[in-house]
Amino acid sequence: MPYSYEKVVIIAGVIEERKAESAISIDDRPQGTGNGRLPTGIDILDRNINGGLPAGSLVYFSADPKSMPEVFLYELSAPRKTYYIITHTSPVYVKRNMDELDLRYDSIEFIDLHEEYYNRILPATSDRHVAAKKLVSYLGVLLNELKKKGDRNFTIIFDSFSFLVDLGIDVDMLKRLLDEIQAIISEKDGICYLMMVKGMHHESVENRIQYWCDVIFDIDIERKGDKIVNKLALPKIRGMTPVTDYIKFKVTDRITIDTSKDIA
């Protein structure tokens, strides 16, 4: 179902800066900071982590689905070339959502695992475990092709990685897949976000993947009186000081970073 709001604005300073940023060409967008870090595209967050996350990072993106985490994924795709791997719907609908949010996707290459699994692999076999292995093999071919390209400083987004975990892929196969992804982003100075939906997986599975990852994004939601408060933190950034204090953001007809302080 399409979003009813017209656009997303991340308020991290001056709104006009964001408008100017959206008008520049892909080649002019900041690919990296020059200090081995890649901007997230969320200005106030980048300022808190000295310009961005370390290149080569595998990021565990943990989110409550009620916090509309897909909007953050769209923002994370903005700074540079992005390979956006979709598992839950068609790229057509993601593009439509981004259009309605007034976000660009001309630097995004969509990879449709949803179509491959549900309309090609699954109808050809009655065994879901066999289907899952075939999908991982298919993904391995795509990653190998990506490795052969000349692109550098790119972003890979899995929306969502929960889909692959939920297929029941065994731990060893899952680890080999993540090792392959990490080898690519390390060699190419890229970054990969693994969207993991809170409440879908056993805690031991989540802990294992979090341990393997370099960075943890934690998006949470809580009720305060008659209001819903959305919060973002980065409790783990390998090689850097983590952002342990939650950054509040609001979801109304737009998303805004809330810089106000709580009153006891």
Structure characterization notes:
The structure is a single chain. The termini are far apart. The chain has nine helices and eleven strands. It has a single domain (41-258), classed as P-loop containing nucleotide triphosphate hydrolases (Rossmann fold). Strands 5-4-6-7-3-8-9-10-11 form a nine-stranded mixed sheet, sandwiched between helices. Strands 1-2 form a two-stranded antiparallel ribbon. It is globular, with a radius of gyration of 18 Å. It has helices at residues 15-23, 43-48, 69-76, 91-100, 113-121, 128-148, 162-166, 171-188, 203-212; strands spanning 37-38, 53-54, 57-63, 82-86, 108-112, 155-159, 191-197, 215-224, 227-237, 243-251, 255-258. A hairpin with a 3-residue loop joins β10 (243-251) and β11 (255-258). 36% of the residues lie in helices and 25% in strands.
